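Regression test case RT-17, inverse folding.

Input:
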């Protein structure tokens, strides 16, 4: 099992920035990729960004491309999500997740709230 703890959420005005952090612990050796997802009130959880753990390849949802940047610090087992030019529609609970090699995302953090005011 991989334990994930998110931090860095908060309240920000539209156009502002936040940086989310996800600290991973436990059996991280089989982690293939880490991802960020979000869920707004009354909506389904949606994919935001992902990064492969060894190669650092990234992929983003179209809605955040060019505004969000995902990165990792392998030595610290930490994944970051830098969010710039935030919009009210980015308001959601953001979750960090880990994906093992050959599998789907099966370890999730508790989530951190991001609120963007207009």
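Golden output:
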């Amino acid at each position: 099992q991989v334990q994930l703890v998110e931090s860095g959420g908060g309240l920000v005005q539209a156009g502002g920035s936040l940086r989310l952090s996800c600290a991973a612990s436990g059996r991280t050796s089989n982690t293939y990729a880490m991802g960020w997802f979000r869920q707004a009130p009354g909506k389904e959880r949606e994919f935001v960004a992902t990064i492969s753990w060894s190669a650092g390849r990234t992929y983003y949802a179209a809605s955040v491309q060019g505004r969000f940047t995902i990165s990792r610090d392998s030595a610290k087992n930490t994944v970051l999500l830098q969010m710039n030019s935030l919009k009210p529609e980015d308001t959601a609970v953001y979750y960090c997740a880990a994906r093992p090699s050959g599998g789907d995302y099966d370890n999730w953090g508790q989530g951190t709230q991001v609120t963007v005011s207009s």
